[in-house]
Amino acid sequence: MTRYLGERQQDCLDGLDVFKSWSRRDRRWTWSTPSETTRIFESLVRRGLVTKTIEDGVAVYRRKE
């Protein structure tokens, strides 16, 4: 499971590696797949916008303060 914690917390489903986000381009809610979720969050880590920690075997991404 991937969780994103921060100012714009994504709606996560317990036990599933997906998240729901608002698409400005499509103007609707979309669900990401596990690989898309990981790719998006890892790119945010590389850009220095979020931090990644492992808590109880779960990857937790937090917006940098």
Main sheet summary: 3 strands, mixed
Using the CA coordinates, give the radius of gyration. 12 Å
- Outline: globular
Q: How would you write the strand order of the largest sheet?
A: 1-6-5
The quaternary structure here is single chain
Decide which structural class fits the backbone.
Answer: alpha+beta
Total E-strand runs: 6
How much strand? Answer: 35-45%
Structure, described:
The protein is an alpha+beta fold. The protein has one domain. The chain is built from one helix and six strands; from the N terminus they run ββββαββ. The chain has one helix at 34-46; strands at residues 2-5, 11-12, 19-23, 28-31, 50-55, 58-63. The chain has a three-stranded mixed sheet with strand order 1-6-5, covered by helices on one side. Strand 5 and strand 6 (58-63) form a beta hairpin. The longest helix is centred in the middle third of the chain and has 13 residues, at 34-46. Mean pLDDT is 67; it is low at 5-17.
Describe the secondary-structure layout.
Blueprint: E1 2-5, E2 11-12, E3 19-23, E4 28-31, H1 34-46, E5 50-55, E6 58-63
Parallel strand pairs: 1-6
Antiparallel strand pairs: 2-3, 3-4, 5-6
Outline of the structure:
The protein has 65 residues and is of the alpha+beta class. It is built from one helix and six strands; from the N terminus they run ββββαββ. A three-stranded mixed β-sheet has the order 1-6-5, with helices on one face. It has a three-stranded antiparallel β-sheet with strand order 2-3-4, with no helix packed on it.
